[in-house]
Amino acid sequence: MTLVIDDDLLDGQLLRVLGSAAYGGADIGECIATARLVDLKNPVESWYEQWTALAERVLELAAHAEDAQSARAGYLRAANYLRAAGSILMGVPLDPRLVDSNTRQADAFRRGVALLEHPPEVVEIPFEQTTLPGYWFTLDDSPRPTLVLIGGYDSCAEEGYFFNGAAGLARGYNVLTFDGPGQGAALLQQGLVMRPDWENVLPPVLDWLLDKPQVDASKVALVGLSLGAYLAPRAASGEHRFAACIADCGTFDMYETFLSRLPEQVRGPYEAGDPDVVAGVGKMLEQMAAQPTAGWSMRRNLLVHGVDTPAQYIELTKAYTLKGHAQDVTCPTFVCNAENDPISSTAPELVAALTCPKEFVTFTAAEGAGDHCESGARLLYHARSFGWLQNVLN
Q1: Of 124, 308, 337, 383, which has the maximum CB count within 10 A?
Q2: Helix (H) or strand (E) holding 223
Q3: What is the CATH code for 1-116?
C-alpha cells in the first residue's frame, strides 16, 4: 500500500515519521505536504532538501512561539524531521551533511525536551575508553520501574523518545535512551561502529543506571526496536539484572535472514562457498547498493558496520546471531513481528529458542500494524507491549 510516495523506501520512511505524531514527533499535514514535494527523479537529494526545509520552517516557528507548549512542539517535530532528512544520506564515505543533521536534530530535541514538565538530564555514560551519549528521563525522586531503550540501524537516542520513551513516561516509567556503538552520535560523532556482543555493551550502562536513586533495581526492562530487537535479547543473554526484555520486531540470525532472500538455486552454492556464485552475489549487491533508494539499506549497513563492500558486510553478519545465546536469556521476554515485515521473519525461531517465560505477538496488516516495527500503529503496539510489561513487573 502506497501512502503518498511511489517508492517503497521513501514511503516507508514517511510512515516512520508519521508514526511519531501521537508522541509529538510529527504533524501529519505538513509531513504529507512535504512528501509530495519529493522529486523521484533525484530522490535522495530531494528528500534531504525537502525535509531539511520543513525542519527549518518549524524551527523558526518554535523560536518565535508565543507560549512554551508551541515552542516545545515545534522543536520536537523539527528534531524528528532533521533526523529523517539526514538518514537518507547514510553511506560510505560519511557525508558531512549527515553529521550536521545529527548535530542539529540533537540541538532541536534538547531545546524541546527542556520545555517538558520533567526535563531530562543529558548524559554521557562511561563506556570502555569513551562515553555513550543519551538522555535520562525521570518523573520524581522516588524509585520507579525503568526502561532502557535500544534503537536500530539508523535510529538515534532522540528518536527513541518518540518510539518508546514518551509512551513509557506517560505510564510512570523512568526512561534511559542512548546511542550505543553504531548508532546516532556514537557512530557519527565518535566513530564507534556496530558490534554484535551487546552482552558486553549493556553491563556498564546498567552499572551507571543502578547508581541512580530513582531506579527500582528490581524493575528495569530492556526495550529493543528494529535491530535493537536483536541487540536487546543478545544483551539479556549475558546481563541478567534485567527484569524483562522486549524485542520489536524479533530477529534471530542476520546471516540466515540474508540467505533466505537468495533464490533457492543460489543459496546452496553460496553457502558452500562456490567462488563464482559468491562473486556473482557480491557483484549483485554492489549494483543494488548503487541504486538511489533500493540500495539505501546496504549503504547504511556499510557505514554502521565500518566496512567498504557488501561482501564484507555479509561476512560479518554471521556474528549477529542468537544461536547459542537465546537460551541464556532468563528474564521474561516479549517478542513480536509484523505481518508484512521480512526483517522480522525469523522471530518465530527466536521464540522457539528462548527458554525463559515468553510472549509472542504478531501484528497484522488488517489492524494497520503490519509494517516494520508497527510504524503506523505505535499506540496499538504500546497498549499490548506495556500491558504485558505491567503484568510481568507487578
Answers
A1: 337
A2: strand 215-225
A3: 1.20.1440
Query: CA-CA distance, 152 to 150, in Å (whole number)?
Result: 7
User: Does residue 316 contact residue 32 with C-beta atoms inside 8 Å?
Assistant: no
237 Cβ neighbours under 8 A, 6+ residues apart: 199, 322, 325, 326, 328, 329
**pLDDT reading at 1 higher than 80:** no
Q: How many CB atoms lie within 10 A of CB 333?
A: 27
- Calculated CA dihedral for residues 250, 255, 258, 264, nearest 10 degrees: -120
pLDDT in tens, 87-138: 999 999 999 999 999 999 999 999 999 999 999 999 999 999 999 999 999 9
pTM: 0.97
SS3 call for 362: strand
Q: Which residues are catalytic?
A: 226
The answer to whether 147 and 176 have CB atoms below 8 angstroms apart is: yes
Where do we find the cell 527484569? Answer: 243
Grid coordinates standing for 264? 533457492
Q: Domain ranges for the chain, please list them.
A: 1-116, 118-253+320-394, 255-319
Closest CA to 134 of 146, 153, 150, 118: 150
| Euclidean distance between CA atoms 110 and 116, whole angstroms | 10
- Secondary structure percentages of the chain, helix, strand, coil, to 5: 50, 15, 35
